[in-house]
Records
---
Amino acid sequence: MIRKISIAAVLTATLALSGCGYNDFQKLDESVKASWSEVLNQYQRRSDLIPNIVATVKGEAGFEQETLTKVIEARSKATSIQATPELINNPEAFKKFQAAQGELSGALSRLMVVSEQYPNLKANAGFQDLRVQLEGTENRVTVARNRYIKEVAGYNVLTRSFPTNLTAMMFSYAVKPSFTVANEAQISAPPQVNFDKPVAK
């Protein structure tokens, strides 16, 4: 008799948890983690390209040192933040990480614009290849970031909706931070690295 009651209790608890979104939380949490890992992979790919870009640009006589220094400093700042999977559960740390990556994007964009003023760099096949790789990486960053935003939105809706918000409170599932920018259009627009347009003097 006791065994039957125990089995019934387990079955009831299982049905209650699945009905309150417990399994959905598990699935969406894993999706958020996977999409976040892809964001980190693409940021790492970009970070790995920068030393080669910097080395190539340094070889150009008279290149604007301030611009180069800002890229080096921004990369250093971005890589100093330990980008772990747990970062997405810490809104304050996430905000700092996002700001550092945004600063690096801006510095790289400026470097590429300034580079257009140097004919030797425009003619340098190695630099052109790095430019194409950077452009491709920025596109991958955008795709990965947009996927993360979508996954977080789904997770956060589940966290805030009734009755799954009760499950969220019971198991401490908090709302996860998402990427935000002052201009939302920037989310889908990678930095411009086109060498074909002349720079306005």
Note: The longest helix spans residues 22-58.
---
Amino acid sequence: MPLRLKKPLIYKSNVRNNEQSYSLMTKFSDSYLGRRDFLRVGSLGLGGLSLPDFLRAEEALKSVGGIAKDKTVVFLFMHGGPSQFETFDPKMDAPSNIHSATGEIKTKIPGITFGPTFEKLAKLNDKFSIVRSFTTQSAAHDSKPIVSKEYSSGAQIGAHYAKVAGASHPQFGMPRNVWLHPQAVDAGATDPIMKLGKFDVTGPLGPAYEPFQPSGKSDLRRDMQLTIDPDRLGDRRTLLTSLNQFRRTVESGKVTGGLDKFQSQALETLTGGISDAFDITSEEASVIDRYDTSKLIDVSRISKRWNNHQRYANHIKNLGKLMLLARRLAERGAGFITVSTDFVWDMHADNNNATMTEGMEYVGRPFDHAVSAFIEDVEARGLQEKILLVCCGEMGRSPKINGKGGRDHWGGSAPLLLYGGGLNMGQVVGSSTKDGGEPATDRVTIPNLYATIMETILDVGVVRATPGIPEAVSQVIHGASPIRQLI
């Protein structure tokens, strides 16, 4: 029997948990959900429903605004630790062994300069904001801030998002949490480096929230929660074949009576738009060309003296394609997309890694091209409110250039770029000390970045009112204040 209450409470963010839960319950009940349906909807935010269940609950969720906002984070992880000096904080007034080894260029915002490798971004910096007072507080190679033992319980933050938003988008069927690395667009690319930081770990949250890897490293069956014999599913191609066969059976009328409209919609979602989203060749040629970073540098000319030369090649050939793919997935319902191109920002000038000047050509120039293309494309499509781009690495670089022309590990200060998401753009947040080694004003840490991201893509008031949210997830969402200048 449907549970109906005549006088639903009005939701207020500062009421006690039991009152908040009651308010949400009355709103759900007014959508004529039965008691059992309501209990299942109550677990929606914890990823406990299949795709048809999500679809059944969609209208009820809309009536309270939903847990997940219609927004996406694209987190471009600059693995290896980018230098703050050669990117967004040149410090040209500092001594020659400290300031940017590549010099500086003026940007669209008067008085703000970037490293000259970022010539395209310099013309767009009224569209994004940079943080000059960001610190990761550790000089260790790992995958923070994507994964932090201290701040995210050793789970990838996209998994925290998926834990409350659900593993798949309720309307489009797209995995909520996705990881794109070069193998997603290049079958010949080397495996991502995992010994210096993993991107697919879920810690206490469980494997159901692992990021989907379109390179075939993850299990689409689990992400989509389909009721198909698992013994018949070996890979994504087999999955799609099975789905297509099932759809033909449905269309023949043999099982139509056994499917309700939500199951049918789920089937169409999975056999229709999902596979197309991962096909970047369906884009217009001009769009593909604008993103293409493979033509910037002849990879055969990368010096073989650097053991990392193949990683540089992966970055140059694939970063633009990965950013184009990220935009396509964001349009189609992915909520948290991690992009990484291997361990390329580690510019010690040792046997593995190039000097600052040479390395910024291999790494910084493709970054400038791909990120500027992404921003221009998102702007042209009117998606700047929907998509939040975050760019940073696990640390920054030492104030002093070493004797070989590189910079060493440094946890005191690191570059951070944010674009879109409805945040306040076109500004510089905070400042660093004279030597660029520490925040001088408006210190921003990893928990502040987490809070900014989660407030952008989740209704944190609804999350706070939802019973059963794990403490680890709450810590990521509510553990610090968002970056106040951006909100």
Note: The first strand starts at residue 72 and ends at 77.
---
Amino acid sequence: MTSNWGTTKKWLAWLLLSVAVTLGGCGYNTIQQQDEQVKAAWSEVLNQYQRRADLIPNLVNTVKGFAQQEVEVLTRVTEARARATSIQATPELINDPQAFSRFQQAQGELTSALSRLLVVVENYPQLKSDQNFRDLQAQLEGTENRIAVARKRYIETVQLYNTTIRQFPVNLTAMVFSYEPRENFSVENEAEISRPPAVDFGSSTPAPAPSRP
């Protein structure tokens, strides 16, 4: 009995070793590695977008203190932030084309609303010279740059992963273990979306503040 069990264990060990070698040769380990890289890159994208969302309430309140009449612009930023943060950005979102598209559109709308706000700020020299606003401006600039970097890394990792699981014989392994292509940011508008808003308020000739009624 003991001898038979010892023989069975040896056969199981050889079987497991054969399976491991087969999976490794068919790209299973590569898929695992690149899948983790995609998840890590996506997590960083979400972290940076959340960082921007956290900055916006203070930014809006600071601008409101100097430019209360810019209600429409401030409202658009607030509403765009609400839409962006209402989307539950889970790791599974990158497996859902429609949800990913909604997420990308919402973040793009928030970027546009922020850009418009920063253009309006040019009309308020006192606001531009306010230390609190300048601190927020520096944080926003840094965050927008980090968003661009995070998006670029995500695009690259997804492109590599999607290419890998479509290649033979790795595509067979991907099919067996149900690994599907991941969603990616739109290439055609990536340059425009990821361009940080103009936040340089160092001009020596600021525009005059509009007259108040």
Note: Residues 9-23, 188-194, 196-213 have pLDDT under 50 and may be disordered.
---
Amino acid sequence: MRTGLNERTLSPYAGFMIFALVAVIGFAYVKWAPYYAKAFVAQSHHAIGDSILSGKSSAVPTASWSAAVDYAMAYGKAIWQALVLGLVLGSGIKVLLPSQWLGRVLGRIGLRSVALGGMFAIPCMMCTCCAAPVAAGMRQSRASVGSVVSWWMANPVLNPATLVFMGFVLGWGWTFFRIVFGIAMVLGVAYLAERYAEAGERAAVEHDVVPEVDSANGGLLARWLREFMTLAIRLLPEYLVLVLLLGAARAWLFPVLDAPDSIGWIIAMALAGTLFVIPTAGEVPIVQAMFALGMGAGPAAALIMTLPAVSLPSLAMLGRVFNLRTRLVIAAGVALTGIVAGLVATIVF
């Protein structure tokens, strides 16, 4: 009799229960408990910390190795636990969840899978980079392009904790604004990604191109650890390099923090926000600091929509499951939504 659990001894139900237990414990420790406490801080102080872009300064640091390392350290301190959880869950999907089951639930092309992916993301509350390993695991286990994009983007854009922080810090009008444009962004970009994905990429779900995990490859924990290490080695080196580069390039992406309401600045902030990487809810103190310096509602709205949605590192992390065209469609959809939101904000606020 084998001493290690494998596919023959682990039923689909047991695998699902193990995965759910790990997810609930992980999210409770990394997300739910800390954000519950932070909500009271936001309510009492109308702030949740300094801007990760500039700290207490009124200007972004000039491009340098020091600026790169300082940003990477601050960013890493904020997200490392969630990133580890993302790697654990992303690898766990392939080991514990039957791909046939995931394909039946989220594998169909169309609005149903897109909507389900977005709804499943609501309690997870991960930033775009920490959600990327899970999105990769979902895609490799036969989830459709639309459902994966919807889950991936809804995590940061429709994060309930961020919406609460935003209400207490920036005002509830901005929370409502984010909800309306966030739903439109998530569903719209997911639809476009699925619509313009190449035929072979869409068919990957339907034609069983992802092999099942070989039951002879050892026990459950050994296979899970192997998948974890494979995922980490594939994603983290490139991710770290891009975070360092973006940390150094802050001064070029955000040359001023008091941009006025103009179409030029709205476009510039939408593009910068699409590329830049921040931790969960990092857009709230960033925009609060920019408002204090005189930034207009239009550029601020563009950042509120684009900063959390995607980033250059998170797009790179999904390079093995989405081709370049699909990722360009996602980035373009996010930037365009940010521009439209900025133009609307100049009228509404």
Note: Residues 1-8, 203-216 have pLDDT under 50 and may be disordered.
